[in-house]
């Protein structure tokens, strides 16, 4: 029998409802989905530590962390595919480059793209952090546990609620 294991890699700093939406969609299509948090992101100092980010992902999907090349990690895991979300055309260029580079590095690994629900097309971890730090309400856009952890992590934000 043919089973498909896929990796859903990312920074997840923090997890958003858009990520959860994609995890749910991906888990319906592939047999095994591994959410993989990049340990050393090039995106600068993260707001949340890796164990904190791991804890904020729930559901019946396995969660792990990785370092180094995604293609090496995927091979180690015996995964045939990488799952990535595309929200808008602006994501396309970055995603296309990564998919092509990953294909060059490992021609056997396919990248699968899925689109999150329309209502999450503008949601990103970067915007969530920025809006929250300035006192904005992000409760409809991230899981309740993430709101709790944001409040604990950024206690001196401007209070509007
Ligand atoms: O959530 P992000 O930041 O968009 O995820 C980016 C991620 C983690 C998928 C990407 O940076 C990655 O795969 N990094 C691992 C290093 C690697 O394989 N680089 C070459 C990719 S072309």
How would you describe the overall organization of this protein?
The protein is globular. The protein is built from six helices and five strands, in the order E-H-E-H-E-H-E-H-E-H-H. The model has no long low-confidence stretch (mean pLDDT 90). With 161 residues, the protein is an alpha/beta fold. The structure holds 4'-phosphopantetheine (PNS).
Rounded mean pLDDT score: 90
Bound ligand species: 4'-phosphopantetheine
Structural class: alpha/beta
Measured between the Cα atoms of the first and last residue, the distance is 53 Å
Radius of gyration: 16 Å
How many strand units?
5
| Anisotropy-based shape | globular
Widest β-sheet, arrangement of strands: 3-2-1-4-5
């Amino acid at each position: 029998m043919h089973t498909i294991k896929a990796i859903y890699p990312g920074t997840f700093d923090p997890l958003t409802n858009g990520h959860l939406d994609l995890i749910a969609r991906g888990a319906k299509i592939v047999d095994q989905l591994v959410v993989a948090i990049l340990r050393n992101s090039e995106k600068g100092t993260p707001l949340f530590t890796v164990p904190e980010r791991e804890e904020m992902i729930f559901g019946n999907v396995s969660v792990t962390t990785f370092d180094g090349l995604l293609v090496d990690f995927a091979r180690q895991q015996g995964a045939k595919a990488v799952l990535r979300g595309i929200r808008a055309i602006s994501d396309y260029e970055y995603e296309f480059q990564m998919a092509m580079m990953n294909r060059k590095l490992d021609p056997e690994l396919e990248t699968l793209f899925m689109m999150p629900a329309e209502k999450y097309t503008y949601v990103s971890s970067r915007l969530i952090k920025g809006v929250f730090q300035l006192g904005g309400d992000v409760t409809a856009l991230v899981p309740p546990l993430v709101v709790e952890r944001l409040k604990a992590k950024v206690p001196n934000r401007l209070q509007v609620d």
